[in-house]
Amino acid sequence: MDAGAVAVKRDDRIVDRIHELDPSAGVRTVLVVETVANLVRMAGVLFDAIGDLLAPHGLSLAKFSLLTALQTAPGRCLRMADLGVEMSVTCPNITRLVDGLERDGLVRRGKLKGDRRVVLARLTAQGEKLVGCVVPELHAGLESLCAGLGSEECEELICMALRLRGSIERAPRRRRSPAQSERPAAEGCPQGSDTIDMHRGTPGI
Question: Do 31 and 119 belong to one domain?
């Protein structure tokens, strides 16, 4: 633990709830369930906080992620299908995101030279300027959000997050049907609106 780090007390309410729901849960099970419960809660709090940082610029995390994906792509452009892969978002959602960003003058569509069937999304000069303005502010905001962690703790957390992600990806999982795989839209957002798969990557952050 870094010098000056503040000790944090575990939430007894989570542990009590685990024991209430599963009286036979052992020490290991309680620790795992408590860990996952805190990660899920933290993810929700973190995404809300990131949304607050982006809101003054009229951006959601999904829109910002799309802009930064284009900003870091060769020629500042990507095929629409490649954008979907980059952001782990379905094609209809990518279309809606690009529609909104195009209306704002931040992205424009084009055709691939030699194959007019392929639609490209290209970052405009206005979009590039906005990304250049937002990124330093966002990074400063993220530093403020993580002020309770020292540098060594950040490194430890990165390593633990990568190990956990690898464990999850290697674990056997029951495959869902296409209908079951449809995630509900975020509260207050219609299905297929301006959302991003928070279980995958968040480009630009």
Answer: no
Instruction: Tokens 């056997």: give the residue.
Output: 172
Residue-wise pLDDT tens digits, 155-198? 999 999 999 999 999 999 887 665 665 544 433 333 444 555 44
pLDDT tens readout for residues 24-42: 999 999 999 999 999 999 9
| CB contact set of 100 (below 8 Å; sequence gap of 6+) | 63, 194
Q: Which residue range forms the structural domain that includes residue 19?
A: 10-57
- List CB contacts of 72: < 8 A, sequence separation 6 or more: 203, 204
Distance CA 162, CA 68 (A): 23
Say how many Å lie between the first and final Cα of the chain, rounded: 25
| 53 plus 72 within the same structural domain | no
